[in-house]
Design goal:
alpha+beta; four-stranded mixed beta sheet; 8 strands; about 20% helix
Length: about 150
C-alpha cells in the first residue's frame, strides 16, 4: 500500500512539473524588446536586384506605422512614429482572430496621459514573440494605435 501511495505521489509530481514546464515554453504576450529606429532585419540577397529594391521600400520611410516578421516568423516587429520623449512603445500583443479564422492581432501601447512630450516625430520599434495560434503562413493584420497594418506572408 505504501508503494502505491508513493507511486501516485511521484506521478502527481511529474504531471505538475510537466504543466509548469509547458507553460514556461509558451511565448509571453509581453514585449521582447523596444528601441528607437526601424527594425533590424536580415538582408536576403535576391536574384533579381530590381525586385529586391522594390521589396526594401518600407512604409516606415514615409512615417507610416509598419510591421514585419523577424527571423522565420517567431517574432513580430512593429514600428510606430511619435515623440522621442514619449515613444509609442507596444506593451502587449493579443490574438483577435487565430490563423484559422483571419490571423489578426492587436497591440496595446504605453499611455503617457497628459505628460509633457516633444513635438518631434521619430520611429520606435517594439518586438514581440509571435503569439500561438497566429503565424507567417498567411497575411497577418496588426491593429495598433487606430491603424490596421497588413503583414505579408513570410
Amino acid at each position: 500500500m505504501a508503494s502505491t501511495s508513493l507511486r501516485r505521489a511521484v506521478l502527481a509530481g511529474a504531471a505538475l512539473t510537466s504543466v509548469f514546464l509547458l507553460a514556461a515554453c509558451a511565448p509571453p504576450k509581453s514585449l521582447v524588446e523596444s528601441y528607437p529606429g526601424e527594425p533590424r532585419v536580415e538582408h536576403v540577397v535576391e536574384e533579381d536586384e530590381e525586385a529586391a529594391a522594390e521589396e526594401d521600400e518600407h512604409p516606415a520611410a514615409d512615417g507610416e506605422p509598419s510591421a514585419v516578421w523577424l527571423g522565420q516568423g517567431g517574432q513580430l516587429a512593429v514600428t510606430l512614429f511619435g515623440s522621442s520623449t514619449c515613444p509609442p512603445v507596444g506593451t502587449r500583443i493579443s490574438v483577435v482572430e487565430p490563423l484559422s479564422e483571419g490571423n489578426i492581432v492587436e497591440i496595446e501601447t504605453k499611455d503617457y496621459g497628459d505628460g509633457m512630450c516633444t513635438a518631434d516625430l521619430v520611429p520606435y520599434t517594439s518586438v514581440f514573440w509571435t503569439p500561438m495560434n497566429v503565424g507567417p503562413t498567411s497575411p497577418l493584420t496588426v491593429r495598433v494605435a487606430g491603424t490596421e497594418i497588413e503583414v505579408p506572408v513570410k
